[in-house]
Design brief:
This protein has 263 residues and is mainly beta. It has 1 helix and 17 strands. It has one domain. The strands form 2 sheets. Strands 1, 2, 3, 4, 5, 6, 7, 8, 10, 12, 13, 14, 15 and 17 form a 14-stranded mixed sheet that branches. It has a 3-stranded antiparallel sheet with strand order 9-16-11, with no helix packed on it.
Amino acid sequence: MLPIQKIALTLIACMGFAASAFAAPININLTNPTSRTGIDSNSTYASAYNYSASGLNMTLTGWTYGVKEITTNTTCKTWKPGLPKNNPTNCKTWNTQTTKSPDNKAKQTLVGNFGSSNGLGVEKASSPNHAIDNEGGYFDMVLLSFSSLVTLEGIDLGWISNDSDVSILAFNGNAGQLSFAGKSWESLLGNGWVSAGNYYNVGSNPKAVNPLNIASQYWLIGAYNPLLDTIVKDKYVKVPEPSALMLLGLGLLSLVAVRRRKI
């Protein structure tokens, strides 16, 4: 898929049941965090990136489907002394092979910054596997957690390979539905999360998103997920090509933050 570089938000002032957006959107450059949490021994990676802009705080974390690892014996490495070598029970130590397969339970992974022109990716891996992608049954996403409600208006991607198809979810449930660790992406819809659209061929230029102006404190942005497309049928969705590799140069281009007015 791609790296996200920037995000754009709009602040919304809430008075009673009415909400109004401030004129100027908030732009956050994701490649320039205020701080990082849980920095890995390789300083490229951290468990979370933290940002502050115009009195608004945001934490970004990376998520992907889990991985099942199965280790099997292949050939005998050393045999037990004095015993026939054609009987597997006489093997002392084995050569092994580990295979990995996707597991549809989301788990948190590391976030990496790959330069101001490339953006953010997830998972500690060699290029291009640290990109946000939907290859091989994996579906990577980043969670944006804000200190206030925001309306996401646009995204800006960095490095892209194959295509740049994006799925976006917004949270509108209760606190007990927020955690999705160990859950499948497709189980989120109808359980606190709503689709803010799937977007085809976003490209490296700023892309307007969220035409319904959904406001939320929590946003999931990631490679296009066909599992969500089988559930969500809205007029904004175009069916994208598979296999997106991208870095979130995510300049969330236009974020409208929603604040409650103090009395």
